[in-house]
Design a protein that fits this description.
The chain is α+β, with helices and mostly antiparallel strands and 619 residues long. The protein has helices spanning 2-25, 39-50, 52-69, 74-94, 101-121, 135-176, 195-200, 214-217, 219-232, 281-301, 322-327, 341-350, 362-375, 409-429, 440-457, 471-478, 480-497, 522-539, 569-585, 594-600; strands at 28-29, 35-36, 180-185, 190-193, 240-247, 253-264, 270-279, 307-311, 317-320, 377-382, 388-396, 400-407, 461-468, 504-509, 512-518, 553-560, 591-593. The strands form four sheets. It has a five-stranded antiparallel sheet with strand order 4-3-7-6-5, with helices on both faces. It has a five-stranded antiparallel sheet with strand order 9-8-12-11-10, sandwiched between helices. Strands 14-15-13-16-17 form a five-stranded mixed sheet, sandwiched between helices. Helix 1 runs parallel beside helix 3, helix 2 (39-50) runs parallel beside helix 4 and helix 12 packs across helix 13 (362-375). The N and C termini lie far apart (103 Å). The model is unreliable at 601-619 (pLDDT under 50).
Length: 619
C-alpha cells in the first residue's frame, strides 16, 4: 500500500511539474512586457493538497525549465516558483487537509491568497530597466487572476477527492458486507462483486468474475435469471424480491432472499442493476421452530393445573385454559379469545372480582396493569371468595405475554402462621423467662443503639443498675422458690414505674435489673432512680434475714452527657456498675451517681484491680 502511494505521489509531482512548465511555455505577454501564467497557483495547489513530495518534484521541474529558458527575469521567476512550492508545503504541514467545506474553505482561501501574493512580489526583483511605473497594476491583475484560478483548481480537486473518499468508503463497506452484493450491466454481466460473491463462486479475485454472466456460473438457471433481469431493467421503477431454496454442491440446502433494483444514469436511462442476496436459512429455521413451539405450548397449557392465559402484543387474549376461568369466575364470559385486556380489567372492577382494585382510579389501575403485562413480572391478587392467587407474567418473544396464575392461599396462611411463630420465638429469645421483662441480650443491643443515637443527635443517655439487697440471704432464709417470687414482684414494681416508651427495663442477671433512659441527663436519672428505690421499699416485701425486715434495693446511676463522643456503651455500663458498688458500700438502700462516687470514695477503693467487672454482692 505504501509502495503504491509512493508511486502515485511521484507521478503526480511529475505531472504538476509538467503542467507548470506548460503554463510557462504558453505564457501570455502583457502590454507592460510581463509574461502572465498560472505556474504559482498550480505549484501551490499540488503541494497543499498532495504533500511535500509533489511540491518538491514539481518545483524542481519548473525551476529547471525556467533556468534553461533564461531571460532577464529568470532569477525572479525561480524565486517565485520556490516561494509558491514552499507556501503549499507549509500549508500541507500546518493546515492539514479537512473534508468538510466549513473546515476546508478558510484554509483554501488563506493558501490561495499567500500563494498568489508572495511569489508575485518577486517581480520587483527584475532589473530596474525592466520595471515600469504602471507595472504595479499589471502585477495586481496577475495576482487576482492567479488567485481566482487557484481557487477553482483547489475546490475542484477537493470536491473530487471528497467524492473519491466517499466512493472508497462505500466500496469498502460493500466488500466487507456478509451479504452477496453485485452489480450487473445492461446485458446481465457482472461489473463488480464483493468478497462474499467471489467466495461463493470459489473465485479468489473479484476481477475474475468481471464480464461473466450467470450462463458462465450457473448454466442450469441462467436462462430463467437472465429473462427476469432483462424484464426488470425495462423500467427504473421495477423491483425483484424472491426467496428460493438452493441445493449447494457441498450437499447443504440453503434458503436465500434476493432483492434486485435497476440502476439509471443521469438521464434516467437504465444502465444495469444492483443485487443483494442474503442467506436466511437460520431465520427460516427459527421461524419454523417458533411455529412448532407455539403448537407445543398450547398443548401443554391446556393440561396445566395452574391458570394460563396467553395475550398477543396488542394485549388481546389469545388463549386461556379452564383453570384460568375457574379462578376468575365472575368475568368468565368476558375472558374469551380476542377480548382486550382493558375490557377484561374493567369488567373485573365493575363486578368486584378482585379486592385490591382502587375503585377511585380504575382507569389508572387498568393502565398500570396493561403496562406491567408488557414488561412482565409478578402480582399477588386477592379474590372476592377469599382466595389469593399469584399471577406471573413473562414476555414471549414475537408472541406476546404468558400469564400463569397459581393458587397460593394455603401458602399465605402457612406463611402467616410461620411469621407469628417466628415473632413469638424472637420475643421469647429477647425475654427473661422468670420476670417477663427483656433479657440481657436485648438490653445489650438497645444500649448500644441508644448510645450511638445519642452521639449522633447530641443528646444524653443515662443508665440505672438496681441490685436487690441481701438477696443471697433471702434465698437461704426463705428458699429459692420464694426468691423467684420476690424477683417477679420487684420486676412488676419496676415495670409500673416506666412511663416512656423509649425507656427500657431489663433483667441484667441474678438479682440485678437495669433501666436505660434515653434523652435523660444525670439529674433526671437520679430522680427516676430514687422513685424506683422508694417503690421497692414501699412494697414492703418480707425479708426475714436482714435487719430492715423488708426487701430494699441499691441503685447506681451513670450518664453520658450530651456532646460527649468518647464514651461507649461499655463505658456507661462500667460507670453505672461503679456507682452501684458505691451505693452498696455506703450502706445499701440508696441511690448513688457515678460522679459522686468518684468525689467521695477513696482512691484505693476505686482502684481498677479491686473493682469487679460486674458487681456481684452476696447481699
Amino acid at each position: 500500500m505504501r509502495h503504491t502511494h509512493g508511486k502515485r505521489v511521484v507521478a503526480l509531482g511529475i505531472l504538476v511539474g509538467l503542467g507548470s512548465i506548460a503554463t510557462m511555455a504558453m505564457a501570455v505577454r502583457t502590454q507592460d512586457g510581463l509574461l502572465f501564467d498560472l505556474r504559482f497557483a498550480l505549484l501551490a495547489t499540488g503541494a497543499f493538497l498532495e504533500g511535500p513530495i509533489v511540491g518538491v518534484i514539481a518545483a524542481l521541474a519548473a525551476i529547471s525549465f525556467r533556468i534553461i529558458e533564461g531571460g532577464a527575469g529568470w532569477f525572479a521567476g525561480t524565486v517565485g516558483i520556490l516561494l509558491s512550492a514552499l507556501i503549499g508545503i507549509a500549508a500541507y504541514r500546518w493546515l492539514p487537509f479537512r473534508w468538510t467545506f466549513r473546515q476546508f474553505a478558510p484554509r483554501a482561501l488563506l493558501v490561495a491568497f499567500a500563494a498568489t501574493t508572495l511569489p508575485n512580489i518577486a517581480v520587483f526583483m527584475l532589473p530596474a530597466d525592466l520595471l515600469d511605473a504602471s507595472m504595479g497594476r499589471t502585477v495586481l491583475l496577475t495576482m487576482g487572476l492567479n488567485f481566482v484560478g487557484m481557487l477553482f483548481v483547489v475546490f475542484a480537486v477537493w470536491h473530487g477527492k471528497l467524492r473519491l473518499r466517499e466512493r472508497a468508503l462505500l466500496l469498502a463497506a460493500i466488500r466487507q458486507a456478509p451479504d452477496y452484493f453485485y452489480v450487473k450491466d445492461r446485458q446481465s454481466r457482472f461489473v463488480a462483486v464483493n468478497k462474499a460473491v467471489a467466495a461463493h463462486h470459489d473465485s479468489e479475485l473479484k476481477s475474475t468474475l468481471a464480464g461473466k454472466s450467470d450462463f458462465d456460473l450457473e448454466p442450469e438457471r441462467a436462462r430463467q435469471l437472465f429473462a427476469a433481469e432483462q424484464d426488470l431493467m425495462t423500467s427504473p421503477d421495477n423491483r425483484i424480491d424472491t426467496r428460493e431454496t438452493v441445493d449447494l454442491p457441498s450437499g447443504d440446502t440453503r434458503v436465500f432472499e434476493t432483492t434486485k433494483v435497476p440502476v439509471s444514469d443521469v438521464d434516467g436511462q437504465v444502465i444495469g442493476l444492483v443485487g443483494i442476496t442474503r442467506d436466511v436459512t437460520e431465520a427460516v429455521e427459527a421461524e419454523l421452530q417458533l411455529h412448532e413451539d407455539r403448537r407445543l405450548l398450547v398443548s401443554i397449557l391446556s393440561k396445566m393445573t395452574d391458570g394460563v392465559a396467553l395475550f398477543d402484543r396488542e394485549s388481546r387474549l389469545v388463549y386461556c385454559n379452564d383453570q384460568y376461568h375457574a379462578f376468575f369466575s365472575r368475568t368468565r364470559d368476558v375472558r374469551v379469545p380476542g377480548a382486550e385486556l382493558t375490557a377484561i380489567l374493567r369488567a373485573a372492577a365493575e363486578r368486584r372480582e378482585q379486592l385490591d382494585i382502587p375503585h377511585e382510579d380504575v382507569e389508572g389501575w387498568i393502565r398500570d396493569v396493561v403496562q406491567g403485562m408488557k414488561r412482565g413480572g409478578s402480582e399477588e391478587i386477592r379474590l372476592f371468595d377469599g382466595r389469593t392467587v399469584m399471577a406471573r407474567t413473562r414476555v414471549v418473544h414475537n408472541l406476546g405475554a404468558l400469564s400463569v396464575v397459581s393458587d397460593i392461599t394455603d401458602m399465605r396462611l402457612t406463611e402467616q402462621k410461620l411469621s407469628g411463630l417466628v415473632s413469638e420465638m424472637e420475643t421469647l429469645a429477647r425475654t427473661d423467662a422468670l420476670t417477663g421483662i427483656v433479657n440481657r441480650r436485648a438490653f445489650d443491643e438497645y444500649l448500644e443503639r441508644e448510645v450511638s443515637r445519642g452521639k449522633r443527635g447530641g443528646s444524653p443517655v443515662s443508665l440505672i443498675i438496681l441490685d436487690v439487697d441481701h438477696f443471697k440471704a433471702f434465698n437461704d432464709f426463705h428458699g429459692h422458690p420464694e426468691g423467684d417470687i420476690c424477683l417477679k414482684r420487684v420486676a412488676n414494681i419496676l415495670r409500673s414505674q416506666i412511663r416512656r416508651g423509649s425507656d427500657l427495663l431489663a433483667r441484667y442477671g441474678g438479682e440485678e435489673f437495669c433501666v436505660i433512659l434515653p434523652d435523660t441527663d444525670e439529674d433526671g436519672a437520679i430522680v427516676f432512680a430514687e422513685g424506683l428505690r422508694a417503690a421497692v421499699e414501699a412494697a414492703r416485701i418480707e425479708h426475714g434475714a436482714c435487719d430492715a425486715g423488708i426487701v430494699t434495693a441499691s441503685l447506681g446511676v451513670a450518664t453520658i452527657p450530651a456532646g460527649v463522643d468518647d464514651l461507649s456503651a461499655s463505658d456507661l455500663l462500667k460507670m453505672a456498675d461503679i456507682a452501684l458498688y458505691g451505693a452498696k458500700k455506703s450502706g445499701r438502700n440508696r441511690v448513688m451517681q457515678h460522679s459522686r462516687v468518684f468525689q467521695t470514695m477513696t482512691a484505693k477503693t476505686l482502684q481498677p484491680e479491686e473493682q469487679p467487672a460486674k458487681t456481684k454482692q452476696a447481699g
